[in-house]
Amino acid sequence: MRTLNAEMQAQLESNDIEFYELVTPDKLVERGNSKNSGECHLSGVTHPNRRAYERTKIRNHYALYSFDQPIIRRSLMAEVFVLGGGTPTPTEFRFGSAHALRIGDEVLMFDCGPAATHKLVKAGLYPTLVDNLFFTHHHFDHNIDYPCFLLCRWDQAAGHGSELNVYGPKLTEEITQKIIGVGGAFESDWQARVNHPYSQQVFVNRGGALPRIPPAPKAKDVGVGEVASGKDWQVTAALAEHVQPYLDSLAYRVDTPEGSVIFTGDTQPCDTVRELARDADMMLCMCWDEQSVMETANEANGQCGTTGAAQLAQDAGVKKLVLVHMGPSLSKDTPFDRHIEEMTAMYDGQIIFSEELMRLEV
Ligand SMILES: [Zn+2]
User: Fold this and answer.
1) Pick from 123, 191, 310, 326: CA 20 to 30 A from residue 336's CA?
2) Across all residues in the chain, what is the average pLDDT?
3) Structural domains in the chain?
4) How far is the CA of 264 from the centre of ligand 1 (A)?
5) pLDDT digit string, tens, across residues 266-303
6) Distance 330 CA to ligand 1 centre (A)
C-alpha cells in the first residue's frame, strides 16, 4: 500500500488539479481525486493491448503500484470505456454490449451485456462507482449481466452510497422487479445475504452496519426527451429503429462540459438518431458488418453497417465515430483498412474501430 508522497500532493494542489492521473511512459499508474487520495489499494489489470490499468477499490480510493519517475497530468473530465464491443455472437475478443462514461468522479453505464460487471472492473472501474445505468433496449446481448450487476453493486457497497438509478424503455421496471424484487428470481440470494449470520459477518467486515437493507434499485421506464441529469451531465433519449414493436429501443445523448457523446444502441440509420446526434463530439454507433455484405444477406434492416454508420455520422455532423457492437465477420477483418477507406470517402471525421476495454477521451 502506498499513498501520494508530499511532493506529488503539493504538485496537485499547486496546479489546482482535482482529478488527476499518474503516468509513466508506458502505463497509467494511478487515477484519482486529489482531495481523497489518502487511502490506496495495490492491484492492477492488463489490457489486451498490453496497456496497464489500475483498478479502483471503492469510490475515490484508487489503486497504486510501484513506478519510476511518474508524472502527474490533469485527467480529462470525460472518458468512454468500451466494456462490451460485440453482439449476441460470442467471440474470443467480443461479446455483447456495454459502455461506461466517466465524467469527473461519476460513472454512467450504458447497457449491461454479457460479463459487463467483470469487464467494468477489468477496465479500471468498479460497480459501486456507477449510480446511473441506462438501457438502450432489452435484447439479451445488452442486459444479460443486469442481475449480476445489481447484486454485485449492492453487495460490494455494503450499505454505503446511493441506490442505483436505472433507466430504459418499456420493460425496464418489470425486468428489475422480476430479477430482484420480492418474488423475483434472485430474492433468495439477497434474503440469504441479509439474514444469514455468516453473510452478516462478511457485510460487517466490509464496513456495513446491521440490519442489512435489501437492494432497492430505482428503475424507471423512460421515453424520448430528457431522461436524467447530474452535476456535470444531462442525458437525452431519442427513438432508435431496431425490432419494434417487439422491443422498444432508445438512443442516448450525454452532454457534459467536456463534450457530448451519443450511444446509438441498436438502430438502423434514422432521422431521430441523426437529430439526437447533431454536432456531437463522439458517437458510439453499432456496426454489425460490412454494409454490402449485409445488403446481400438482407440483414441491412434494423441495424447499421460500416457505411450506414459513416453516413449517419456525416449527416449528423459528428466529430468522432466509434464503431461498437461489431459482429464476428467484421471483427475478423482487422486492421479494417478496406472498410476505413470506404467510410472515409463519405465521412470527414475520425473513425475508431473499437476493442473491448478500450478507453477513449471525449
Ligand atoms: Zn438488439
Assistant:
1) 123
2) 84
3) 6-74 (no CATH), 78-361 (3.60.15.10)
4) 11
5) 999 999 999 999 999 999 999 999 988 999 999 999 99
6) 17
